[in-house]
């Protein structure tokens, strides 16, 4: 099949030619004819399949007739993130090179004034994130009743980000006669409900089974016996082992703060790395992405903000520093590599407590992922899990990272060198009240209720008093300590 067979206009075909596309991708071949017929479409496709052009091309075609009036956009494209919105605007720039259509981009982190001016001039195509769109609508700068075409892109991402109520509100503001093109990589029940409610008898097109990873991606797992520092060491080893083939790589972490810590650590170890996560302002994010695109940065430590939709061609490697919380995110993350039929490589670091997540991914993808150096044995997992728990209890940490100071934050301050000496543990080995090392002695004088230990974690006075003295003799029962409630006199009935 050729683009000509899709009955696109001459102008659109000329732009496709100029962009260098020769053959429509499967999602384009399936979705474009329905869109041109005026049908609502549900497209189940992940990024990297050419889905952006599958709505940009028919929109350009359909918008050729007519023109926009002030504050009354003719089409609306909703994107979950600013980056995706900016990327779609770029696609319109490339593929709309033969048209004189006006594009307005409404995203957060950019001045309202400039955006209002664009709306005032009239926009044929309005690309927006839901929050900023509703802000403009609330200010009375925007009328939605001339929107003939609505595109909802990355709907499952919108769901993850809590945008569904906003989407519902926006859909209710639009004329019911509009045409809707709806795209999602997966179809969880909430998304299905949304399409049932707001689309009219849609045609469903699907380019691959939901949440399956592309076959041209080599996937590997690498065991790490412990979190944080050990994981960073394992990551560096992985990166070095692939150095001859790495062109550029994205390294995904589950949490924003881990991205920041990892970025710092990579730079310190001489890797040419940048960071991308939701806490950075728009200017920083755009600059980092641009540098990564141009090859000025080779490694990009990123949170899932970067996982979906960002069009960064030719990412040769993806490293998962953490097993993602949702198995669908794994598919999205590794979808950054092996795009447009190229070979890709994705390796994931797994700690004992992340094994469950690996099984969820394998179940979802219906495939086993191969381990580098073989699968860890049950004994191996149990041993590392036990030693990790023992280590944590020696450090006075209780399970989970949610309480008190996070483990990562502690690492950030106690890890000037990756070969870190065991200073924090050594300090802990002394009875808390009798610490004589300089920093800890200073803390001991503080009257505060919660005192900091040498490793940065804190132990309340109450808990410190309950800590056993550091002797090597095993403690039997409650040891010498008798809790106060056991010493209370008991009234005995005569
Ligand atoms: P997307 O899935 O929309 O993010 O597109 C992934 C990449 O494929 C982008 O770099 C597009 O420019 C490119 N692309 C889209 N359609 C085609 C096509 N028909 N032929 C070649 N490349 C394409």
Please render the helix and strand layout as text.
Blueprint: H1 10-19, H2 26-36, E1 41-44, H3 51-62, E2 75-78, H4 82-95, E3 103-106, H5 112-121, E4 125-128, H6 130-138, E5 149-152, H7 155-160, H8 164-173, E6 179-184, H9 189-198, E7 203-206, E8 217-223, H10 228-241, E9 249-252, H11 256-268, E10 273-276, H12 282-294, E11 299-302, E12 317-320, H13 327-334, E13 344-350, H14 355-365, E14 370-371, H15 378-394, H16 407-414, H17 423-428, H18 438-445, E15 450-452, E16 458-460, H19 461-466, H20 484-487
Parallel strand pairs: 1-6, 1-7, 2-4, 2-5, 3-4, 5-6, 8-13, 8-14, 9-11, 9-12, 10-11, 12-13
Antiparallel strand pairs: 15-16
Helix pairs in contact: 2-3, 3-4, 13-14
The structure holds adenosine monophosphate.
Adenosine monophosphate binds next to helix 3.
Task: Characterise the protein shown here.
- This protein is of the alpha/beta class.
- It has three domains: 3-206, P-loop containing nucleotide triphosphate hydrolases (Rossmann fold, 3-Layer(aba) Sandwich); 217-376, P-loop containing nucleotide triphosphate hydrolases (Rossmann fold, 3-Layer(aba) Sandwich), CATH 3.40.50.300; 417-494, no CATH class.
- The chain is 40% helix and 14% strand.
- The chain is built from 20 helices and 16 strands.
- It has helices at residues 10-19, 26-36, 51-62, 82-95, 112-121, 130-138, 155-160, 164-173, 189-198, 228-241, 256-268, 282-294, 327-334, 355-365, 378-394, 407-414, 423-428, 438-445, 461-466, 484-487; strands at 41-44, 75-78, 103-106, 125-128, 149-152, 179-184, 203-206, 217-223, 249-252, 273-276, 299-302, 317-320, 344-350, 370-371, 450-452, 458-460.
- The strands form three sheets. Strands 3-4-2-5-6-1-7 form a seven-stranded parallel beta sheet, with helices on both faces. The chain has a seven-stranded parallel beta sheet with strand order 10-11-9-12-13-8-14, with helices on both faces. Strands 15-16 form a two-stranded antiparallel sheet.
- Helix 13 (327-334) links the parallel strand 12 and strand 13 (344-350).
- Helix 2 packs parallel to helix 3 and helix 3 packs across helix 4.
- 38% of the residues are buried.
- Adenosine monophosphate binds at residues 21, 23-25, 28, 47-53, 311, 313, 339-340.
